[in-house]
UniProtKB/TrEMBL annotation:
Stored SUPFAM superfamilies: Glutathione synthetase ATP-binding domain-like, NAD(P)-binding Rossmann-fold domains, Succinyl-CoA synthetase domains
Family annotation (InterPro entries): ATP-grasp (IPR011761), ATP_grasp_subdomain_1 (IPR013815), CoA-bd (IPR003781), NAD(P)-bd_dom_sf (IPR036291), Succ_CoA_lig_flav_dom (IPR032875), Succinyl-CoA_synth-like (IPR016102)
Residue stretches making up the ATP-grasp domain: 498-705
Residue ranges the record marks as coiled coil: none
E.C. designation(s): 6.2.1.13
PROSITE patterns tied to this protein: ATP_GRASP (PS50975)
A Pfam family matched in the record: Succ_CoA_lig
The name this protein goes by in its record: Acetyl-CoA synthetase (ADP-forming)
GO molecular function: acetate-CoA ligase (ADP-forming) activity; ATP binding; metal ion binding
Sorted UniProt keywords: ATP-binding, Ligase, Nucleotide-binding, Tricarboxylic acid cycle
SMART domains xrefs: CoA_binding (SM00881)
Length: 711
């Protein structure tokens, strides 16, 4: 019975799981793209109709071949094109004529190769859209769909047999990487639902397939390899929808070192960039960003096959029969943002039944057991860890030892019984293959390197934080935040920037703008010594670098001398562009923060917080989030800084007022949200934090305001 022609536009579900496929450029030669495509479709049991397309062959792989798609007896759901770029346009035209639903274009050297290729790509897409036909690619490696046995790809990863279906959905802008990850995951027992390589995203995009995977019943967790986004607001909304749907998303973003602004007027612009903004958007939506694609696959797998990490911020409990492996594992943890658990008294009591009291501590070396490493003692300790409220996961970095496979068999039941992740690391190379086989047979994850297990632990902890964030209340506007005053486009003076901050309830220093030394002296008497003197010019970015700042002026003579020096420096730095000087109160505190705000072209208003002062760009201790912010999220950003321990007080110094800092950040976030595209960049540096309970104050600020959009 002849199949009906596909409905246009073809639903993505029918592209991923087509009923009929034409392979253009099909060949008997598996050394060619088209030869591998049809070989893998047959090898992996594609259940639908296959139509080899080759003008020079009557049959291919025992199937009737057709010169053109339009000559075939039916219009296929999908045509896979593995043809030279020079013939691509004609083949797409024939597919459109034949009524093909979608084309998977493996062909490369289009937009990624230069203007001529980009022009060809544009013509191909326009032709397809005119016919209601979808395009996946070009420059992609197609689709792996183990669920429906539709391996629509030429990737050599498909040389491996028997890809059992599972729950990991993957969308990748790199086809070769997708194949590598499929093979890597298979080695570790990870199983996939659908994997899609989107290539140049000339028509169908990463966002389209992310939306599909959210609705796909077979997909339980999603991995994304992202180079660029076509629809950033939709991407953000889909990440939030994934969190609501209970499908964890793990992502790797290429281009982490790309600078967002090469000629920055402010710290904000120089610290912002494609990756920091992407990471902030993902964190806000509850998705997890990793720096290693293989770790991403392991995290996706762990989110399915391991019990969930109970709550963010919990500790790890490493235990094994090697002091070297457990200590090394513990030594590596801080670099991954992880900590050892603090064992409860009940846990310590259980450990004390098996080892000397002097050895009851994490990490646990079971070689210190009274009678040496024993399975029953190991199991008792792990059960105690599973019941301990501060333990997020147990880690077992196993080294060579007698009966490794037998010992390994203990762990999957203990993890499932305990309800917490158990991260099993087989560090012994090929000698440990029998142990890996035990884990595969138990359908339980394993890791070959400690770093992989730690990356998974960090990802699971972040995923737990995402679960909690999804339940957080919407941000509330604090009292007295806005509206913004009237603003002219262009750079603001420090005083203008501070008035903008003050309109949102952010405390700023008392100050006065003066034109001469007498006025400066009068202002200082009104404010009270000591004071700060600064030169004012919109043309100057870094005042201290140009000698335009004098601190701690304690009496009038010093102020008058400083006024003369700063005025001369201002004339040199900005001839004809000086706007006098400002006399400002001298603020002191326990710590300094940097706050920033900007409008990202893709994702909208953003705020950031970091270590403040003159070393802000050098230290790069900054965290970013979309605006507006809830108070709890603002506090979490600050406490996530590397300098956070300093803010909490060290060596007898009082703790800084983190509540006041969080309040200032929340208020700045509403300023950013209200101004929208008009806030090109804004710095508060430093925001001085006084001792806990005594507040914070913005000492310096600068901003650049964009023209208001007339539309």
């Amino acid at each position: 019975m002849e199949e009906a022609a596909p409905t246009r536009p073809l639903p993505i579900g029918r592209i991923v799981a087509p009923r009929s496929v034409a392979v253009i450029g099909a060949s008997e030669d598996v050394g060619k793209f088209g030869g591998r495509v049809i070989h893998y479709l047959i090898r992996h049991g594609f259940p639908g109709t296959l139509l080899p397309i080759n003008p020079n062959r009557a049959t291919i792989r025992g199937l009737p071949a057709w010169p053109r798609v339009s000559d075939a007896p039916l219009a296929p759901d999908v045509a896979i094109l593995a043809v030279p770029a020079a013939t691509l346009e004609a083949q797409i035209a024939d597919c459109a004529k034949a009524g093909v639903g979608a084309c998977i274009v493996i062909t490369g050297k289009l937009a990624e190769a230069g203007p001529e290729g980009a022009a060809l790509q544009d013509r191909v897409v326009a032709m397809a859209r005119g016919a209601g036909m979808r395009i996946l690619g070009p420059n992609c490696l197609g689709i792996f769909n183990p669920v429906d046995r539709a391996m629509l790809s030429s990737s050599l990863a498909l040389e491996e047999p028997d890809f059992a279906p599972g729950g990991i959905g993957l969308v990748s802008q790199s086809g070769a990487l997708m194949g590598t990850l499929l093979s890597f995951g298979r080695h570790h027992g990870a199983r996939f639902s659908r994997c899609i390589s989107v290539g140049n995203q000339a028509d169908l995009t990463l966002e389209d397939f992310l939306a599909y995977l959210l609705e796909d019943e077979a997909t339980r967790t999603i991995g994304l390899y992202v180079e660029g986004l076509r629809d950033a607001p939709r991407f953000r909304a889909l990440l939030k929808a994934a969190r609501v749907a209970g499908k964890p998303v793990f992502a790797v973003k290429a281009g982490r070192s790309e600078a967002g602004a090469k000629a920055a007027r402010s710290h904000t612009a120089s610290l912002a960039g494609a990756f920091p903004v992407f990471e902030a958007i993902c964190r806000e939506a509850g998705a997890v960003v990793l720096d290693d694609p293989q770790a991403m696959i392991l995290a996706c797998d762990a989110a399915i096959r391991l019990p969930p990490w109970p709550a963010a911020g919990l500790g790890l409990a490493p235990i094994a029969s090697s002091g070297g492996s457990t200590v090394t594992f513990a030594d590596m943890m801080p670099a991954f943002g992880l900590r050892l658990a603090e064992m409860a008294p009940a846990t310590c009591a259980v450990l004390g039944d098996w080892m000397p009291e002097s050895h009851v501590a994490l990490p646990v070396d079971t070689g210190s057991f009274h009678e040496g490493t024993r399975g029953d003692g190991l199991a008792a300790c792990i059960r105690a860890f599973m019941a301990d409220p501060d333990v997020g996961a147990v880690a077992v970095p196993m080294t060579t030892q007698p009966d490794m496979a037998g010992r390994t068999a203990l762990f999957p039941p203990l993890a499932r019984e305990g309800g917490k992740p158990l991260l099993y690391v087989m560090t012994a190379g090929a000698v440990g293959d029998a142990s890996r086989a035990v884990m595969r047979a138990a359908d339980f994850p394993f890791y070959d390197r400690m770093a992989d297990a730690l990356a998974v632990a960090r990802a699971l902890d972040a995923e737990a934080a995402g679960r909690a964030r999804a339940q957080a209340a919407m941000p509330a506007r604090p009292e007295g935040a806005g509206p913004p005053p009237a603003l002219s486009a262009g750079p603001l003076t420090e005083g203008e920037a501070k008035r903008l901050l003050a309109a949102y309830g952010i405390p700023v220093t008392r100050e006065a703008t003066v034109a001469d030394a007498d006025a400066a002296a009068a202002a200082a008497r009104a404010i009270g010594y000591p004071v700060v003197l600064k030169g004012v010019s919109r043309a100057v970015v870094h005042k201290s670098d140009l000698g335009l700042v004098r601190l701690g002026l304690a009496e009038e003579e010093a102020l008058r001398m400083a006024f003369a020096e700063v005025t001369q420096a201002l004339d040199r730095a900005a001839p004809g562009a000086g706007e006098g000087c400002v006399v400002q109160e001298m603020a002191r505190g326990e710590a300094e923060l940097f706050l920033g705000a900007m409008h990202d072209a893709q994702f909208g208003p953003m705020v950031m917080v970091g270590a403040g002062g003159v070393l802000v760009e050098f230290l790069q201790d900054v965290r970013m989030a979309p605006a507006p912010l809830a108070a709890g999220d603002a506090r979490a950003l600050i406490e996530g800084l590397r300098m956070a321990p300093l803010l909490r007080g060290l060596r007898g110094r009082p703790a800084a007022d983190l509540a006041a800092a969080a309040d200032a950040l929340v208020r700045l976030s509403w300023l950013a949200a209200d101004l929208g595209p008009r806030i090109a960049e804004l710095d508060v540096n430093p925001l001085i934090l006084r001792a806990e309970g005594q507040g914070a104050i913005a000492v310096d600020a600068r901003a650049t305001i964009a023209e208001e959009d007339a539309s």
